[in-house]
Design brief:
Layout (H helix, E strand, L loop, with lengths): L1 H8 L3 H38 L9 H13 L3 H32 L1 H16 L2 H12 L3 H25 L3 H9 L4 H38 L5 H9 L5 H30 L4
Length: about 270
């Protein structure tokens, strides 16, 4: 009887599997919430002790009220959706190109010698300096923002892919050769799965950089997006609480996208922490 009741009450394996990601997500979120609370308290303390006027440093509650009003009156939503579209498309393009390049560099020393100087030079050139030129070439629409995001995402993902594939356990490769696996099978079934932690680590860095790239692209030229709203709030409107509310929205967007990539990483490679 006891065994039967234990069998009834014990959760199924798939239920336990779904509970673990939720537990881990909560484990990841509480430091963010705690850190945000400390930051808000420090912000409020600086405003009170420094006596700063709202047009220099508005109080957190002022920014929160302006944030709610901006979403309620439809000011924030189209800008946030436009920036989100730029980030997602730019990240996708940059990550795909970086994966292909990283695999090529990992498999070919000649390709590494030929391409690495140009990749490093492109990374060393500030994107902020390239943005006006990219806007001139590709226009001030969506395409130029996608190009800038892809450019800023490319380097960390490409390097992470190359390093991840090169550090695969040689024993796995020997096992693949022993089973007469083709080069494609070795790559897709051994190297890429073993390199996933490194690749996804690069993508976590890349998704946060894509947020920066989207704003830089909007500053270089554009009529919609959170970067444009920051400029308008700071300039013609001189609505400093709105500017801070837009910055809060950008930060929340970056954290949310980072957590999405982290959740994908946990699903694919498990919890390593």
């Amino acid at each position: 009887m006891k065994a039967r009741s234990a069998a009834i009450t014990e959760p199924a394996p798939e239920e336990r599997a779904t509970e673990r990601p939720r537990h881990r997500l909560g484990h990841d979120l509480w430091p963010i919430v705690a850190g945000a609370a400390v930051f808000l308290l420090a912000w409020k303390g600086i405003v009170l002790l420094g006596g700063y006027p709202p047009f220099i440093l508005p109080a957190p509650e002022t920014v929160a009220a302006r944030l709610v009003r901006a979403w309620a009156d439809g000011t924030m939503e189209p800008q946030a959706l436009a920036t989100l579209e730029e980030i997602v498309l730019g990240f996708a393009v940059g990550a795909i190109l970086a994966l292909a390049t990283g695999m090529l560099l990992a498999r070919s020393r000649l390709a590494e010698r030929l391409l690495s100087p140009y990749i490093v030079a492109a990374q060393a050139t500030p994107v902020l300096a390239l943005a006006p030129l990219i806007a001139l070439w590709f226009g001030t629409g969506l395409l130029s923002k996608v190009v800038i995001c892809a450019l800023i995402v490319f380097f960390p993902v490409a390097v992470a892919t190359m390093v991840g594939i090169r550090t695969v356990d040689p024993g796995l490769l020997e096992m693949g050769r022993a089973f007469r696996a083709s080069r494609w099978q070795v790559l897709t079934r051994l190297e890429i799965p073993a390199a996933l932690p490194s690749i996804l680590g690069g993508m976590r860095v890349g998704i946060t950089l894509a947020v920066i790239g989207a704003v830089i692209g909007e500053w270089a030229g554009g009529d919609i997006g959170l970067g444009v709203l920051i400029n308008v709030a700071r300039g013609s409107l001189f609505d400093i609480p709105l500017m801070f509310a837009t910055l809060v929205t950008l930060a929340a967007l970056g954290v949310a996208l980072y957590l999405v990539v982290l959740l994908v990483e946990r699903r694919l490679v498990g919890d390593r922490g």
